[in-house]
Amino acid sequence: MTTVAWDDVATAVAVRRRPAPETWGIAASVALHLVLGAVILDASVEPPPVPEEAPVEMVLVAPEPQLPPVQDVAEIPPPQAVEPPPPAAVEPPPPVEAAPIEPPPPPVIAEVPEEVVAAPPPPPPPPPKPKVVKPAPPKPAPPKPAVAAPVPSPAPAVANPVPAAVIAPPAPQPPGIPSDYVKDVRGRISRYALNRYPRAAQLKGQEGRVGYTLTLAPDGRLLSFEITPSGIEALDKAAAEALQNAGPYPKLPELGAASYKLTGAIVYKLN
Fold first, then answer.
1. Compositional bias of type Pro residues: which residue ranges (predicted)?
2. Cα separation of 237 and 30, whole Å?
């Protein structure tokens, strides 16, 4: 607006190039009023509102990761396709001829031999009884010795033998000696012999029977003895020891004789 006012003033001055002196005051007054009006008008016009700036928000953003430089990768040509070799022609296997089936052989019946039962051996003959020796009459004639019994054959060997009880079979005694006394003497001899069965004979399984004849004094002392051998040296020796060491024997009853004879046997047997 200020520019327009000044143009009007210039135009007015140009119209009248040669103004009269009285007109200078009027022109100056008009120009002054125009300037004041322009100033007032310019002051009355409010300036346009300044737009408010929006608040600035600051957002922290993480830095973008730096990628490693991309290297130039040489292109690898694709592998050439290898054609598989043609399959070898497989010849079919020749037909297998079935073997002829042979019929099974007929069963063989084994012949069972007849069982032969061995007859039991005949029992051994009983040993002969010892000859009875009659007491001698009261005279210095010596008594007759007893007849020796036959020697039996030894029995077969037995594994881990155990001595059995020694059995003294009864034998006839001279008349006048009580039977209780005879049993007592024989029992002493049998017990002694049982506890001393020869070890060597046990290991070999040897058995046997040793007969004996004792000559005793009236007081029970052993005056002498005789044995009937069994044929086994160890058993004969053990029997002689038993006769000597089983005493002293009990005293004989008063029968009026100077000595008495007593017979018996020691039987060595393994279980």
1. 76-108, 119-150
2. 196
**Distance, CA of 146 to CA of 189 (rounded, Å):** 19
Determine if the peptide bond prior to 248 is cis (ω within 30°). Answer: yes
Domain count for the chain, please give it. 2
Q: Is residue 225 part of a domain?
A: yes
Residue 244 sits in a domain whose CATH number is: 3.30.1150.10
Residue 28, both tokens: 């100056």
Query: 254: how many CB neighbours lie within 10 A of its CB?
Result: 7
The answer to whether 219 and 251 have CB atoms below 8 angstroms apart is yes
Q: Which run of H or E residues covers position 262?
A: strand 260-268
**CB of 166 within 8 A of CB of 194?**
yes
Beta carbons of 186 and 264 less than 8 angstroms apart: yes
How large is the C-alpha radius of gyration of the chain? 82
Tens digits of per-residue pLDDT, 139-171?
Answer: 555 455 444 444 444 444 444 454 544 444 544
Asked if residue 81 belongs to a domain, the reply is: no
Domain with 23, as residue range(s), is 2-42
- Is 141 inside any structural domain? no
Number of H helices and E strands in the chain, helices first, is: 5, 3
**Residue 56 in domain:** no
- The secondary element (H helix, E strand) that includes residue 226 is strand 222-228
Express each pLDDT in 68-93 by its tens digit: 555 555 566 666 666 666 666 666 66
CA distance 131 to 83: 125
- The answer to whether 225 and 198 are in contact (CB under 8 A) is no
Cα–Cα distances in Å, from 91 out to 85, 94, 97, 230?
18, 9, 18, 95
Q: What is the pTM of this model?
A: 0.38
